[in-house]
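Appendix B. Raw example, untouched.
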Amino acid sequence: MVRTISATQARRSLGRIFREVAKGATYVVTYRGKPIARIGPP
């Protein structure tokens, strides 16, 4: 499941995001409503 998170939220919750990514989650990071990065398992 791909989750969307703002850059500000990602910065505040990076530890939690990394733990969830280690379990298989994928995140799309947005800045001003536009996707700028994807964080996911290797």
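End of appendix B.
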